[in-house]
Design goal:
heterodimer, A: mainly beta, five-stranded mixed beta sheet, four-stranded antiparallel beta sheet, B: 116 residues, mainly beta, seven-stranded mixed beta sheet
């Protein structure tokens, strides 16, 4: 599976935008880019995914570089509830597309 | 609607004891995944079911681990003769169709297993 690299941690202030980077230089043309997050003592939850174009949903935006070798998850206004571990995951084609998690990036939000 | 549920939420076992962990996926979801999450690490894939068929068990760490989903809904992960290294959070996830690359996986809260 193609690998992703993320910083270990990031800090943000409440109500400010947050940009969480992810590098995936070995991504293949058919891999989807997914983001999940895991709040303390909970299971992971889906945030957003995309293939080539930038994507927006109610939780976040996903900006994908033109060469697809990197992407950025954007939280437009961080809240204390957004403090979590964020995982950037590549998913290959095929029916059984298991999620291959790395260590993720731990986001702390200061009030 | 109801999400993925898991039981028990916490389990303490003595080394050598057998344990069974239950997962109730979202109703109608075809695919079911089990993951193991050690402290401070991301979840790691254990096994995958499509309906009642176990199509991938490549992540099961040893033959002490066994999973089943006999009627294509509820799944049970069984660990025989538990060892201390089995201590982890066991997560279950389901998805609507075949679990393909564009599909969302919905996770349960996990079962935290501590082996003493």
């Amino acid at each position: 599976d193609a690998k992703t690299t993320q910083p270990n941690s990031m800090e943000s202030n409440e109500e400010e935008p947050v940009h969480l980077p992810c590098n995936h230089s070995t991504i293949s043309g058919t891999d989807y880019i997914h983001w999940y997050r895991q709040l303390p003592s909970q299971g992971p939850e889906y945030v957003i995914h995309g293939l080539t174009s930038n994507v927006n949903n109610r939780m976040a935006s996903l900006a994908i570089a033109e060469d697809r070798k990197s992407s950025t998850l954007i939280l437009h206004r961080a809240t204390l509830r957004d403090a979590a571990v964020y995982y950037c995951i590549l998913r290959a084609s095929g029916a059984n597309s298991k999620l291959t998690f790395g260590k993720g990036i731990t986001l702390s939000v200061r009030p | 609607g109801a999400g993925v549920s898991q039981s028990p939420r916490y389990k303490v076992a003595k080394r050598g004891q057998d344990v069974a962990l239950r997962c109730d996926p979202i109703s109608g979801h075809v695919s079911l995944f089990w993951y193991q999450q050690a402290l401070g690490q991301g979840p790691e894939f254990l096994t995958y079911f499509q309906n009642e068929a176990q199509l991938d068990k490549s992540g099961l760490p040893s033959d002490r681990f066994f999973a089943e989903r006999p009627e294509g809904s509820v799944s049970t992960l069984k660990i025989q003769r538990t060892q201390q290294e089995d201590s982890a959070v066991y997560l279950c996830a389901s998805s609507f169709l075949s679990g393909g690359r564009g599909e969302t996986q919905y996770f349960g809260p996990g079962t935290r297993l501590l082996v003493l």
